[in-house]
Amino acid sequence: MRILVLGGTGYLGRHVAERLRALPGAQVLAAGRSAGAGLGADLARDRPQRLAETLAAAAPDAVVNCAGATGGDPVTLAEVNARGPAALCAALSAAAPAARLVHLGSAAEYGPGTPGVPVTESAPACPVAPYGATKLAGTLAVTSAALDAVVLRVGNPVGPGAPAASLPGRLAALLRAAGRDPQAVLRLGDLSAHRDFVDVRDVARAVERAVTAPAPLPKVLNIGGGAAVPVRELAHGLARQAGFRGRLEESAGGSARSARVSWQCSDISAAARALDWRPAHSLDDALAALWAATGERVP
């Protein structure tokens, strides 16, 4: 089975590619903008005809799109998260219409949740910021295409390799720098929001299931931990993993999105039915793996 992974050098993409390489008989090809990608492909810039040529050369049985932008100005977000999936679908329709497409979406597409009510795939999508809006546009491009395609709406991924721009990655770097100094004070923003955290390795396993499951699959499946957890618990849990003896100090300020989306939790029962998938790792597992990997990266 030939599997093309777009964005395979990114945070999610690295874990996905590693998981897929363990499949018996799988040949995993990487494509993207970075020098480490085997095939050159830029979903934000390449015309569909150019992407179709890349797909034809790869001749994939399945394509996994892990490419995406989580930060940047609205134009960048739109180019990568909205234009990219639309161009990919057009190219697939022309060059590899029989290939299965697994596209990674985001729970940010839903917008604010109702406390105590996990959101299902049929809930209205009401994103509150450009990131969620552009991810939703990408999802609509995939679900409206005449392809064998599924969108995995991923919660907040946590685990080894978390990028420095994310709260887990940034906090891990701060904790590593602080060491075990009992006088250390780490100042963070408001940590009162609730999020659905999911181990990045569980996300990769969900992708594997989506690639290999028999057709047809639902158009959209939620992939999360299935619980709303205060961000404060993540911060203090990672501090425990680090043996931090100082103090975490919250400020009243924080991101605008956290203020507008104070509670999120995904109903993951559809993924259990369609993919026989459930999260295997707890948040503590994810934080332990994140901290261990941070130690490996630091001399």
UniProtKB/TrEMBL annotation:
<comment type="similarity">
    <text>Belongs to the NAD(P)-dependent epimerase/dehydratase family.</text>
</comment>
<feature type="domain" description="NAD-dependent epimerase/dehydratase">
    <location>
        <begin position="3"/>
        <end position="224"/>
    </location>
</feature>
<dbReference type="InterPro" id="IPR036291">
    <property type="entry name" value="NAD(P)-bd_dom_sf"/>
</dbReference>
<dbReference type="InterPro" id="IPR001509">
    <property type="entry name" value="Epimerase_deHydtase"/>
</dbReference>
<protein>
    <recommendedName>
        <fullName>NAD-dependent epimerase/dehydratase domain-containing protein</fullName>
    </recommendedName>
</protein>
<dbReference type="Pfam" id="PF01370">
    <property type="entry name" value="Epimerase"/>
</dbReference>
